[in-house]
Structure formats: structure tokens, C-alpha cells
Predict the structure.
Amino acid sequence: MLVLLAGDEMNTDGLDWWTQYSRYLQSPRWKLTRAVRLALSFHLCAFWWKFWRGKCSGPLQCHHKRYTHVGHEFPFHLFDLQVLCKTHHKDVKK
């Protein structure tokens, strides 16, 4: 799978994909993308109805449902991101 990271977040000095991805998650571009996606979801976990049953916990996280648009999510691929609480993010990763 080919993943392109955007602009100055991309480093082609032989860094592995996870290292590049980790750097991207610290970038201003990701912070803006994450903030917009959180706003679009009204700052609710995708499984918000479980919150009322005590099943949601932890801070909200943006989960990449697929990695084909990493670095290029904003503005056209925002729904490749899913807003999840920490508990449900762990469940989705399994």
C-alpha cells in the first residue's frame, strides 16, 4: 500500500512508514484536520449511544479507517477519519 504524506511532513530520508506517520500526527496540518473532524462529529464518539450506558471513556481520538489518504485528509477525505473514544478506538484496532 502506498501512502503519501503531505509537504513538509514527508521525509524521504529512509524513515519507515510508522516513523513518518508519527511525525505527521504531530504536525500543524494534522492538528487542523483533527480539529475539523472533531467539530463535524460534534465532539462525540461514533458509538455515542453507548456513552449513556457507560461504555465510552477516555479522550476522543481520530481513527484512520484506511490509510490511503494519510496527509491528504483535508478537505475531501475527512470521512476516512472516525472519531472514537479511547475505549472504542482500542476495540476497532483489534
Summary: The first strand starts at residue 60 and ends at 64. Residues 7-93 form one domain.
